[in-house]
Amino acid sequence: MLFTVVGVPSPFALWAIPALKMLIEIGVGDFDFIHLSTVEQLRNDWQNRKTEHVLLFTDCPESELAQILSRNGNPTIFLREDPLQVAAHCEAQVPRESIAATRITTLSFATLHDIALKCPNLKFSSYNPDSGELIRSFAEFFSIPLTEDQFSEIIRRLGTPPQMTPKNDHHLTVSGAASHGSLQKVSAIDDLAGCLTPFASIFNREAVNTFDWPITVFLGTDKYGAPSNDQIEKKIDLTGPARILFYGPYFHLPPGKWEIIASFHVAGNLSGNALLIEVLSGLNVIAKGTFLLPIKGTYGFTIRFPVFEPREPIQLRASLSYGAIEGVFSLGEVKIRRAGTSE
Questions:
Q1: What is the CATH number of the domain that holds 215?
Q2: pLDDT at site 13
Q3: Maximum Cα–Cα distance for the chain, whole Å?
Q4: Which residues form the domain of 240?
């Protein structure tokens, strides 16, 4: 029998997986445990399994694997957790790395998005301080018979599920992962809510349609366009050569067609210039456009792009097309919206 479980990084998942292992071992017998993220892993581990019972777990499936699990008719448990609390949990593991924690959180939710919406035989399982209720719900959903002695033995060995620390007790430090620079300015976790809380709609089996990316998640450059490993400046002096002005945030989006709607302010651009906007998935440019920079005023741009593989981070990159002898640029709001939807 196949027992499928998916979930995001959290204390609940760290308790639930050993609990499910114990439940299957006591209630069913010997089994194989497969923790995977790719179809190749699934093929290899399935062929090498030693029993007829398999507990399969994923928290970051590639697109092809997510499609397979989305069509899976076998019972599937989704370990439910609040996106802000997941980010706080991830940040607590590596202090002063809140943007990295947000990237991990968006990665897991984006890759599991379609499973939550499309899997036909899915149960969302939420934290419950009563471990007995959780074990009974797992056993009932997976049709695992338990005697009272077996149930008591599982509860004795498991203990109480750990509870998430309320998100307001956490503060995220706006800092990039090592591969994408490091920011040292402090921001409350709620400041990143627009990047995270929209994912909660999947627990109503509704698609995520909009995100807000605050300017604090974008990285700036020096006067030559080299990464400054610091947060984007509120006002960027355009004087200097053609160069990258800002980039980031390397967050993850569910599969589909998306668009970025951004506003910006420009002043003192007397000689004129143009802004090259690129969207990258991983290292690949998947959309680009050029937008003229007026002398002054507040303007905006919209650029559409597809997401085929949610495991690849999305980057918005803006470059000055020509050298400038004057002018100031300021990034405003950045919204991400599923193409064809309205706010």
A1: 2.60.120.260
A2: 93
A3: 82
A4: 209-338
pTM of the model: 0.90
Give all strands (DSSP E) within the chain, no chain letters. 2-7, 32-35, 54-58, 76-79, 122-125, 171-174, 185-188, 210-212, 219-221, 227-231, 236-237, 243-247, 249-251, 256-267, 273-281, 284-293, 297-307, 314-320, 328-338
Separation between Cα atoms, residue 179 and residue 282, nearest integer Å: 12
Q: Are residues 286 and 155 in the same domain?
A: no
Dig out the tokens for 162 from the structure: 């750990």
Q: Which one-letter amino acid corresponds to residue 59?
A: D
Q: Return the residue matching tokens 């193409």.
A: 339
DSSP per residue over 174-195, as a string?
E---GGG----EEEEGGGGHHH
Closest CA to 109 of 209, 12, 198: 198
C-beta of residue 15 within 8 angstroms of C-beta of residue 130: no
Tell me how many domains the chain contains: 2
d(CA 236, CA 110): 32
- pLDDT band at residue 164, thresholds of 50, 70 and 90? low
Angle between helices 131-141 and 148-158 (to 10 degrees): 130
**Structural contact between residues 55 and 175, judged by C-beta atoms closer than 8 angstroms:** no
Q: Are 229 and 220 in contact (CB under 8 A)?
A: no
